[in-house]
TrEMBL record:
Keywords tagged on the record: Hydrolase
InterPro entries named among the record's database cross-references: Amidase_CS (IPR020556), Amidase_dom (IPR023631), AS_sf (IPR036928), Endocannabinoid_amidase (IPR052096)
Record-linked Gene3D superfamilies: Amidase signature (AS) domain
Originating organism: Fregata magnificens
Boundaries of every Amidase domain copy: 6-212
Recorded superkingdom: Eukaryota
An annotated Gene Ontology molecular function: fatty acid amide hydrolase activity
Protein name in UniProt: VDHAP protein
The keyword Glycosyltransferase belongs to this UniProt entry's keyword annotation: no
Family: Belongs to the amidase family.
Keyword presence, Hydrolase: yes
Length: 226
């Protein structure tokens, strides 16, 4: 409900992920409760979710419904999280604003005259507006860091290849800097919890190209970069 209200105001959600209720019922029956048990998570547009498009703000991808969840979405689900919406991005994602010809302009919830930043601008706007408590964005040249800054949030660009980029629809670009998926939230503890959840056996099994290094709580508490 909160997400609906926020997107009516700032136009940040592109799609609601179906099957949330079914997933919640399935989770309740599981004996093992994951690290993110019951937490709704918003997902940036280009990260593949089964039964949904990942259009990158481009008309040519509108008909391509994805047949399976990306690795990160599978891992989130295995940890008990509930991916519930997909969020807006600028066309092609190489932009510090957040608008495209399909879904239109996303506004900054703190000031509607301003941009929420990009390219994870829909995530920034939704979380800052109170419609999500944890989101997954991506960053090559500031796409998590800029909207986090513009919207007064916390965001983490992890080291390249720390989290599986498998099944994201931005492989059309060959870039000198490694793009990486990462969490966005209102506080650092939420980012740490999300990283702890993602860096698990399930991810290392689903994507053997990711170095199987678990989350190091001691390094985080020493205040060194994660």
């Amino acid at each position: 409900g909160e997400a609906l209200e926020v997107t009516r105001e700032v136009n940040c959600v592109t799609d609601f992920i179906h099957g949330c209720e079914d997933q919640l019922q399935k989770l309740k029956k599981q004996k093992e409760k994951g690290v993110l048990y019951g937490i709704p998570v918003s997902i940036k547009d280009h990260i593949n979710c089964k039964g949904h498009i990942s259009c990158g703000g481009m008309v040519k991808f509108l008909g391509q419904v994805k047949e399976e969840d990306s690795v990160i979405v599978q891992v989130l689900k295995s940890q008990g999280a509930i991916p519930f919406v997909k969020t807006n991005i600028p066309q092609t994602m190489i932009n510090y604003d957040c608008s495209n010809l399909i879904f239109g302009q996303t506004l900054n919830p703190l000031n509607h005259q301003k941009s929420p930043g990009g390219s994870s601008g829909g995530e920034g706007a939704l979380i800052a507006g109170g419609g999500s408590i944890l989101g997954i964005g991506s960053d090559v040249a500031g796409s998590i860091r800029l909207p986090s800054s513009f919207c007064g949030l916390c965001g983490l660009k992890p080291t390249g290849n720390r989290i599986s980029p498998s099944a994201c629809s931005d492989r059309t670009f060959v870039l000198a800097v490694t793009g990486t998926l990462g969490p966005m939230a209102r506080d650092v503890d939420s980012l740490a919890l999300c990283m702890k959840a993602l860096l698990c056996e399930e991810m290392f099994r689903l994507d053997p190209t990711v170095p199987p290094i678990p989350f190091d709580e001691e390094v985080r508490l020493r205040g060194n970069p994660m």
